[in-house]
Inverse folding.
């Protein structure tokens, strides 16, 4: 019994020592519990982006940074020699970055997993790797201006800039998760300690209205066109005229979103939504539609095109200074008669003309879901001079964005519906799928007027300057435009913006496309630069969309 | 009952002692498992990202066009637009 008591007291003493020690550790001299409690942020996966056929346009990839700790590198020259071929760098370049006075030096960013594995196999000392999630673009720069890119903000966090990366940054980013865990010296969790985990919420995947095949067709044709006509830059927008789903949007020159930092900032701007230009003659059908809609003219009215027109101190001529005498309204569009349009403007009256421009919502953002859209500017009615009303009828003296222009033009061929253009049709998360539907903003003209305009634009192609370019047997409508560039209050005759806007088929338009070529040098006319590019694109789209000849 | 009371203290000591050891060993073992799962989760996520990148690369149109170029099957086939059909339509 004495032995048992002895054992009992031994245990009591042992427990007492433990209790006193715990009291000392926890109360008298408390240890900082944060030494054990580790908090780690779990970064969510940024949402992926797909085209309308679920082809990936943007996914995520893991890249690595190779760093060195110079003090721990044993034989530096052997190390450089061994790793140089794996990194694809010259030994001298590695040596230049290797600074013995520092504890840590970055050698190369953007290494693949394969490269890291090869480096690890060398078993060299003093090397380490940092992991980083970056974006991967399977189609390269094909949709650069639509997608934008992911860069860093001042705090070093990943942020989307431009395009949909900028517009949908919050949706794509997701929400980070958190782990709070008590860890031992081996960094293993202490089971009986704090163990909390809040799972991250990955970013939403986006499904675009863009069709990668159409993007490739358009990019190829636009690039060839810019080279052929020695132009400064160019833009093409292809859309479904009924819904204003953007099928393709290409502006050149563009950039590689994966290495966006290697290009000039100027190329990041999406000219299709951020640049203003004078639309020139492509504006005429919009005025014609409004005049017919408001019964200011009738389709069979006759205008006597006898010569130039004088407004105050200004003289307005036709583009080639030739006049045909008595012509009907369709012929005004066919021959792109500026004086004919001034006649229509006079028939409408200044107020109706001004209201027409506002009805197409020029001077307002289209609210397309891309970052960087500008609204442009239409000056108030009180500040318009008589010459402004005259030139506005043929698209000069006012500025629009390409996206505003194609939206307005689509409204006169789709039955009169002014639609909101959009790029994203679905947002998909783990919990829900959000569909984005076409949205009508206003009714521009009636269905009957729209039918009249479609036929007039068909006739413009059949009998106008561009009839030689049209594929035989197919019904295509459209209008050319050439606008001089205003510099310091004057027009520079040598610099023009050539454009063409067209659609197919006339009976049931499957696509509408706007081609804009900035400062072409081989010819200043839209009919000789933008129009051939449009018809080359249209020929391929006719096959792609299986549009039957009519 | 008397016998039970007599050895109660020893039994309790026995259970507390070995119970503690059991809990510590189990805790260490579970901690190791958690750690393993964490490492594996990171590894699978990384592998998944690499595979996803590979799949998207292979399914891209850029890859298809580079493959067709390397296999010399990149010649364009332009459609022939018929100005005058050489046969009558069956109407």
């Amino acid at each position: 019994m004495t032995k048992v008591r002895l054992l009992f007291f031994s245990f009591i003493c042992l427990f007492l020592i433990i209790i006193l020690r715990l009291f000392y550790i926890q109360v008298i001299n408390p240890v900082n519990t944060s030494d054990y409690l580790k908090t780690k942020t779990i970064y969510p996966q940024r949402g992926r982006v797909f085209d309308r056929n679920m082809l990936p346009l943007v996914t995520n990839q893991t890249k690595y940074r190779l760093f060195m700790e110079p003090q721990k590198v044993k034989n530096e020259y052997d190390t450089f020699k061994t790793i140089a071929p794996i990194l694809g760098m010259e030994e001298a370049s590695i040596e230049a970055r290797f600074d013995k006075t520092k504890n840590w030096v970055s050698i190369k960013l953007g290494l693949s997993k394969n490269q890291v594995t090869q480096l690890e196999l060398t078993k060299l000392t003093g090397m380490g790797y940092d992991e980083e999630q970056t974006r991967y673009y399977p189609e390269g720069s094909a949709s650069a201006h639509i997608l934008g890119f992911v860069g860093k903000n001042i705090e070093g966090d990943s942020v989307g800039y431009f395009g949909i990366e900028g517009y949908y940054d919050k949706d794509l980013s997701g929400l980070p998760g958190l782990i709070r865990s008590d860890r031992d010296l081996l960094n293993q969790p202490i089971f009986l300690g704090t163990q909390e985990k809040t799972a991250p919420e990955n970013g939403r995947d986006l499904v675009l209205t863009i069709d990668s095949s159409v993007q490739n067709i358009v990019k190829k044709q636009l690039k060839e066109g810019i080279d052929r006509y020695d132009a400064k830059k160019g833009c093409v927008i292809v859309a479904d005229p009924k819904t204003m789903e953007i099928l393709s949007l290409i502006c050149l020159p563009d950039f590689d979103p994966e290495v966006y930092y290697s290009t000039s900032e100027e190329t990041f701007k999406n000219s299709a939504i951020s640049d203003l230009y004078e639309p020139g003659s492509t504006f005429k059908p919009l005025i014609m539609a409004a005049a017919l809609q408001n019964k200011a003219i009738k389709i069979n009215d006759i205008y006597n095109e006898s010569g130039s027109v004088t407004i105050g101190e200004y003289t307005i001529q036709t583009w080639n200074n030739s006049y045909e005498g008595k012509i009907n309204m369709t012929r005004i569009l066919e021959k792109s008669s500026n004086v004919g349009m001034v006649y229509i403007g006079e028939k409408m009256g200044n107020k109706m003309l001004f209201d027409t421009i506002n009805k197409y919502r020029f001077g307002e953002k289209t609210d397309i879901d891309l970052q960087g859209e500008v609204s442009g500017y239409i000056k108030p009615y009180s500040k318009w001079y008589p010459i402004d009303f005259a030139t506005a009828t043929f698209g000069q003296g006012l500025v629009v964005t390409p996206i505003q222009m194609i939206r307005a033009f689509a409204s006169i061929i789709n039955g009169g519906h002014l639609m909101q253009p959009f790029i994203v049709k679905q947002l998909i998360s783990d919990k829900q799928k959000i569909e984005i539907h076409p949205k009508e903003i206003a009714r521009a003209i009636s269905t009957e007027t729209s039918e009249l305009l479609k036929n007039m634009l068909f006739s413009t192609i059949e009998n106008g300057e561009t009839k030689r370019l049209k594929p035989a047997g197919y019904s295509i409508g459209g209008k050319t435009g050439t606008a001089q560039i205003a510099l310091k209050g004057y027009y520079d005759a040598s610099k023009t913006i050539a454009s063409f806007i067209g659609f197919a088929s006339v009976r049931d338009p499957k696509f509408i496309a706007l081609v804009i070529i900035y400062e072409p040098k081989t010819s200043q006319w839209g009919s000789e630069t933008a129009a051939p590019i449009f018809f080359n694109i249209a020929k391929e789209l006719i096959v792609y969309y299986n549009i039957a000849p009519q | 009952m008397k016998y039970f009371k007599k050895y109660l203290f020893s039994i309790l000591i026995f259970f507390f002692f070995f119970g503690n050891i059991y809990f510590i060993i189990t805790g260490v073992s579970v901690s190791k498992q958690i750690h393993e799962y964490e490492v594996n989760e990171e590894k699978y996520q990384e592998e998944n990202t690499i595979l996803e990148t590979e799949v998207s690369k292979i399914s891209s149109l850029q890859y298809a066009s580079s493959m067709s170029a390397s296999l010399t099957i990149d010649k364009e086939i332009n459609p022939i637009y018929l100005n005058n059909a050489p046969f009558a339509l069956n109407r």
